[in-house]
Each structure stands twice: as C-alpha cells, then as structure tokens.
Amino acid sequence: MSTVSLTPHAALRIDGARLWNSLMELAQIGATKKGGVCRLALTELDRQGRDFFVAQAKAAGCSIRIDSVGNIFARRAGLNNSLPAVMTGSHIDTQPTGGKFDGNYGVLAGLEVFKTLNDAGVTTAAPLEVVVWTNEEGSRFVPVMMGSGAFIGEFKTDFILAQKDRDGITVGQALHSIGYAGKDQVSPSGIGAYFEAHIEQGPVLEAHDITIGVVTGALGQRWFDVVITGSEAHAGPTPMSLRHDALLAASHVVQLINELALDHAPNARGTVGMLDVYPNSRNVIPGSVKLSVDLRADSDATLTAMVDKLNARAQEIAKQGKVSIALTQVVYFPPAAFASELVQAVRSGARTIGLSEMDVVSGAGHDAVYMARVAPTAMIFVPCKDGISHNEIEDAKSEHLEAGCNVLMHAMLACASQP
Amino acid sequence: MSTVSLTPHAALRIDGARLWNSLMELAQIGATKKGGVCRLALTELDRQGRDFFVAQAKAAGCSIRIDSVGNIFARRAGLNNSLPAVMTGSHIDTQPTGGKFDGNYGVLAGLEVFKTLNDAGVTTAAPLEVVVWTNEEGSRFVPVMMGSGAFIGEFKTDFILAQKDRDGITVGQALHSIGYAGKDQVSPSGIGAYFEAHIEQGPVLEAHDITIGVVTGALGQRWFDVVITGSEAHAGPTPMSLRHDALLAASHVVQLINELALDHAPNARGTVGMLDVYPNSRNVIPGSVKLSVDLRADSDATLTAMVDKLNARAQEIAKQGKVSIALTQVVYFPPAAFASELVQAVRSGARTIGLSEMDVVSGAGHDAVYMARVAPTAMIFVPCKDGISHNEIEDAKSEHLEAGCNVLMHAMLACASQP
C-alpha cells in the first residue's frame, strides 16, 4: 500500500436503513408488477429517476454538472479542490425487465457516503464526486455503457447523440426532451480514483458465503456470430450418410465453446446463448443454424488462444459434418486490470470493518471497465440472491448492501484523505 | 412369384409427354412465383385440382365415387367386376411451399395408365381404380394422411369431419364448401392390390444413378418432444462450474440422436429438426431448450432399442449437465412391410422394361403405409433432383417419371390380369 492509508475515521459507518429506503424509493419510478423496474435510458421515467438523484445530491450540498451526453456529476467539495476528485457512481437506467439494484445501488451508495460524511462533519482533502452514467444498459440505445464510453473518449459525442432507438428518436433528441442535454465539459484526466459498488450479478460470493467481492479486474470479451450452412432435407428419406446436418455440426460447436473455457479455468467463460435453427421443422434436417459465441478471459493472451483454437476446430467440425462454418467477430472488449492500490483499499476497508472478502473478477462489463482506462479504478461486489440480475426478481440483502457501502466509504476516504 | 405373372402386353408403354403435360397443367392450379405449388387441402384451389382430376378420369371412361371424407375413387371397369380392384393413387394437396410432383405424380401416373390402356384397347380382368386421398400433407388440417387413415379405419369419420384449421373451419364444412362431401361407402376390404408411385423425396436413387426404387416397406417412426430445464444466468459473471446450461445438455442430446441412428445403419434415422432456446440472448446462459426427436427404423425391435437407449442416456446427460430432461412421445407409426408379391411385381416390371432398379425403404410416411394394413401394397420411387421435396424447387426428370409410370402400369397389369 503506497499512496493509500487508513483514515482517521475507522469507526465511521453508513446508515444501512437510509440506503435501503433510498433504493426502495428510486425503485418506485418505473416499478413493475413483478417487483422489478423498467426505467429505460432517457425516457420520462429516467428523467424522474435523474431528478430524484439530483434533488438528493443537492440536499447533500453537492454542486451538479451535466455533460453533453447527459452524464450527471454531483460534487462534494474537499479541503483542497485542486486535488484530483475521488469518484464513485454507476447508472440508474434499467433493462426492460430489470431489477432494483443493478446500477442503482452504486449511485445511491455514493450518495449515502456523502450523507454519512455530512452527518459526521467530515471534509476530505480531495473533492468527492458521485456520477450517474447515461445508458449503461444499452436496452433502448446502443452502444451499451454509452455515457462512460463517451466520457473517456471511446465514442465521439456527435456519434452518440445521433444514435437512434427503434422509433427513430436520437439520443440528442431524447436528452433534450428530458432536460438533461448538458453543456458542461467534464475532463476525464486528473481523476484521483474511481470506485464502483455493484451487486455481483453472479453466484460466486453466495456460493462461498462471502460478503465483499474485491474485484481485481474485468474479463476481456470477444463475441462472434457463427453461421453454419448445410442442406435441409427430409428427415425420413435421407440416410444418415448423405446428410449435411447444420444442427449436428452446431452441437459440436456448442461443446467446443464449453471446452475452450474449461481449458482456461477458473476465470475463462464460453457461452452459446443464442441459437436459431432453419427451417426448424420436426421432420426436416436443419439446413442452417445461426448461433452466438461469447468468450471471456482475464488476459488477451488467453482470449487469443481461445479464438485460435475456435477457428481451427470449427473448420474440422465443418469438414467432418460436410457443412460450412463462418465466424464473424462482433464485439471486443480488452481485459481490464484494476489499480492495485485501489484494489488494496477495498480489501483493507473490508478487513478493517471485519467483513469476509475474497478476490473476484468481473465477468460482466461495467462503466468501471471504461473508467479504468483513464483513472485508477476498482470495484466492490456484494452478493445478490441466486446470482440473478437483469431480471425483475433480482434481489439483495440489506446487510450486504450496507456492508458494501461501508467498504466504499472507507476506500474513498483512504484515497481522498491525502493532502 | 406366386400369384403375379407377366402380362401379355409386355411391349406396352405409356406416353411420357402426355404425363408431363398433365403434371404441368395441374401445377398451374396454385402455382407459386418460385415455380412450386400451394394447394392446401379442401381449399378452392384443391377443388379446382379435384375437378381437373375428375374431368380427366371421366374422359377416360371412369366412374367416380366420393366417400364421406372426400377421397375420390375413379374406377375403370374390368372383365370381371366382382374381382377385387387393383388400385393406385396418391394425393393432390400440397405443402404451403410445395412442389409439382409430390402426390400429384402418383395420381396422374394412374390416369396415364388408364389412357394408355384405352388407346391400346386393353381391358383387364379385374377393375382398376385411381384414388385421390384427402389431405395427405396435414398442412391445413391434422392428422396427416387423413383420407387414407380414415379409409382404413385408423380414424373415425366423425373425428375427421370435426378437425379444425387455424380459422376454426372444420373438415366437414370445408368439404361441403368445395362440393366434395361424398356419401359413397367404399369398403377397404377385398382390395386386390394397392400401388403408389411417388418421387423418392430423398437422395438415394440419384446418388446411385438408379431409375426405379423398389420400395420394400416403410420405416416405423417414433417422435418425441424433449424439454431440457437448467437455469438461465449471466454469461459473464457465472463461472463454468456453477452453470446449469440447457443448451450444452441439448448438444449432447443432438449427438445422441445421431449416434442412435448410426448404431442401426443403414436404415435407421435420427433427426433433431426443431430446437428452441430460451431466453435466446447472446450473453445469457440458456435456461431451457425445447427440441424435437424423430427416430425411424425398419423394425419395431430396432425402434424400441433406440428409445431404450435414448431414455437411459438422456438421464445420464441430465445428471452430468445438472439439468432435467423430460421426454414425451408424440407420434408413433409402426414399420410397414410391403407385400412381397407386389414388391416383386414392381421389380419385374422394371427389369422387363430394362430399367435400373434397387431395393429401397420409404423413410417418409405415405398413404400406402396405411393401405398396407388392409391390402397387399407396394410403392415405386423415382429420383427427384437433389432429393429435394416439400419445396418449391422440387424437380424430377420427365424420363424418370415416364419410367416409373411404365413400371406402375406393368405391375398393375400383372395383378389385374388374373382371371
């Protein structure tokens, strides 16, 4: 631990009930009958959610800035406002059948830290900020992680503002409609630290009965579209030896993808989530199959090795099955290694408070993955029930959410207390 | 060869051009832009097709009977009309994107035999009949092979007349609308022979460069619905070891079905034609998969062995993949062995004419499969281009259709010449 030290406020704790109530209040905006939330990016409901955040941030004494893609920055002044800010945040847009915690937790945990510091009369050396990133989910507008991606320069502002939803409405038009088309220039340089607290969205912490996931980085991703072309034919009259069965070949691809991940256990992932058969009729040998491949790994070297084997083996499967197989890469996210001193701040925070913790990697993308390219970054995971997310039944325990928020506070204090 | 002898008309040949022109004329009724035919059972187009058949049959001197499910019997009198009739026929309804030859060939080949016999002044000992079976395809009304199934007593007439299409129209109503609700009682007993000429709908004859398929029987069929239930989860955050991937398990089922057929080569078949993934999203581990299984074999013993292994291995796959697998049988057709003396009549016909021939089994269902339960039955296959059927690009060579019709005529003459 080089630049991060324990704070003089080791006994300070956030108000878990206040955090929970705040989450439940925000979850009313776009609440679904099944107990989830539908609050798509840049809709009237998103405006209400943003207004809720801004009102709470102002009540906590923050100044508000909104940039040109609608990201909201709520700043709590420090003793020396020329120091790089210590930031936290996440998003408040949801999937169409989303939950109450995904994203919302990271934003409201940040506000809860501010409220706690206010109550305790603590002013940090560096200023603190909570950011709400625009359209992390990508459900209404693509690309996903739009706001953080634009902020760090992955996407140009003009490109983002021109993106359209299914009804042809652009991001620019939608931002104007809801009153969040900002003009502030917020620089991605000189940020002291970025933390993001999030539900795990996976089953690892729950399986190990651990409260805090110390996230050491995020897996890189390479996604492919795969098209397998055989020949459709009658299932009855066509002997096995004369078939060109696209689904039989696809079954070998599905098993190959699983094998590629097992070859690089425990952190690699391989998933075929989508598979469409044509013509998809009981007594017709499938003539073609389209499927998706999602490969994830903790290093580019591993990802490359997985893809090399995929390409080679796919051609063997094609030859064996008398079909053709075409692969097209459609998504690439490089692996992100989080900043070791911030990861250590999270780990120390958990240990100081007496919480169980373990190192984990983030298998999913998060705004923090983009932020890691421009600032020291780390994430804090807390368990969610059965690992379920992007689902209306997404659930998390108040005590876990409270614990994660306490870790967030102490990690931020550790970084922001430097003179 | 016990009861079948060569006819005194060994040199007689049908008119290939007339047969082809008749096929092309019928194919105009419901012709599609892609060169196929859409003439669904009991529609106005089916009425036009039936009228075309009846007019040609009457012009050839036939008497017409129509039974209560709309099957049309065109009878050419023999020298001794108390002898059991020698029948041939097929169907003229098509798939929605069907071809010109499936079914239509068997019906018009029968009429061409009558025209040829008329031109040559031949009267057989036994009467001859050409039958048009109602709704073989099952595209508009289920069950498939409705007319022949009702005729042989597999289905009760009242059950058939009450079947509804998607718009709620019953078979009975549709028969009345098109004027083919007959009242004749046609007995399935005492039929001397039933022949059905058909395009192969598979690739075997073409692959072997053989003109005549001597069909020795039809494969039995057992179809299953299979539901695989795992747990859907995020592809990124969920380690391989904690997954319950329904599609991965399904891939093993697909390969098992292939293996079951290869275990009983060359006549067994195993096909997964339909497979649906839920929720079918790129980055979600599939929570459930529904798929169809179509098993076919030339004996019930083989079919049973295949199903026993399917049940046993499916439970191993389920255990290994931490999912559940449920199988439900939805279709059973027993294997049909055709009558050896009629099969020999087909073989002899081909050899007498000097055509290449080979024994084949019918992998698909045909009206002949039902007829085999009540009368000595055989089928004659001719090649179709690339084995393609149930498709607008279905195609066959005029010389092959002519050859098959000549074989049909000589097989019928052999059976009908007995005093």
Question: Which helices and strands appear, and what pairs or packs with what?
Answer:
The structure is a homodimer of 419-residue chains.
Chain A: H1 16-27, H2 44-59, E1 63-66, E2 72-76, E3 86-91, H3 104-120, E4 128-133, H4 146-151, H5 157-162, H6 171-178, E5 193-199, H7 204-208, E6 212-218, E7 220-229, E8 233-234, H8 246-262, E9 269-271, E10 275-278, E11 284-285, E12 288-297, H9 300-321, E13 324-333, E14 336-337, H10 340-353, E15 357-362, H11 367-371, E16 377-382, H12 398-416
Parallel strand pairs in A: 3-4, 3-5, 5-16, 6-15
Antiparallel strand pairs in A: 1-2, 2-4, 6-14, 6-16, 7-12, 7-13, 8-11, 9-12, 10-12
Structural commentary:
Two copies of one chain form a homodimer. Chain A has 419 residues and is an alpha+beta fold. The first copy, chain A, has two domains: 285 residues, 3-Layer(aba) Sandwich (Aminopeptidase), CATH 3.40.630; 114 residues, Alpha-Beta Plaits, CATH 3.30.70.360. Helices cover 35% and strands 21% of the residues of chain A. Chain A is built from twelve helices and 16 strands. In chain A, strands 1, 2, 3, 4, 5, 6, 14, 15 and 16 form a nine-stranded mixed beta sheet that branches. In chain A, strands 7, 9, 10, 12 and 13 form a five-stranded antiparallel beta sheet that branches. A two-stranded antiparallel sheet of chain A has the order 8-11. Chain A starts with 15 loop residues before the first helix and ends with a helix. The N terminus of chain A is likely disordered. Chains A and B meet through strand 8, helix 8, strand 9, strand 10 and strand 11 of A and strand 8, helix 8, strand 9, strand 10 and strand 11 of B.
